[in-house]
Amino acid sequence: MNKILLPIVALVGAVGLFLLASDAAYDWVKAFHIIAVIAWMAGMLYLPRLFVYHSDATAGSDKSETFKIMERRLYSAIIMPAMLATWILGLWLAWKGFGFSGGWLHAKIALVVALSGVHGFLGGSLRKFERDANTRSARFWRIMNEVPTVLLLLIVILVAVKPF
């Protein structure tokens, strides 16, 4: 999606959701939030794996150029829209369902902020790969591939168990 259009659609969607959605929409919003989280996480787990293979490809090779296309499409068509939908829908759920209260919710939001930071790091790394300026090894990307998994596990535990 266009770099200018995506934030506009997200803003209009967020304003519309917060102004127009009734309490009766809660279950539907939750369902779409879960779908968005699944899409976001699928991309967040796959992109570093692509970086593992891309870091071993020779710069300028057909293989490297193919990875660039795959990475860009994954990021712009799946990861970015899914992250925006996750945030918009999740904030609405936190507001409508919990009034932004609860220690578990605050911890969850903090972890989602951390996951968003990883998202931003991957986006910056994507731009480095596009310029053939990656300096990180395949081993680094294998380790980095586990960070979203750990954050996801902690987030799901907080949501399911609500320990505090």
How much of the sequence is in beta strands? under 5%
Give the fraction of residues assigned to helices.
over 70%
Largest sheet entry: none
Mean pLDDT: 93
Number of strands: 0
Run of helices and strands: HHHHHH
The tally of helices reads 6
Give unreliable regions as ranges: none
Shape: globular
Brief overview, please?
Helix content is 82%, strand content 0%.
Please explain how this structure is put together:
The chain has 164 residues and is mainly α. It is built from six helices and no strands. Helix 2 runs antiparallel to helix 3 (62-98), helix 2 (26-56) packs parallel to helix 4 and helix 4 (103-130) runs antiparallel to helix 6 (147-161). It is globular and about 55 Å long. The model has no long low-confidence stretch (mean pLDDT 93).
Sum up the structure in keywords.
164 residues; mainly alpha; 6 helices
Topology at a glance:
Elements: H1 5-20, H2 26-56, H3 62-98, H4 103-130, H5 138-144, H6 147-161
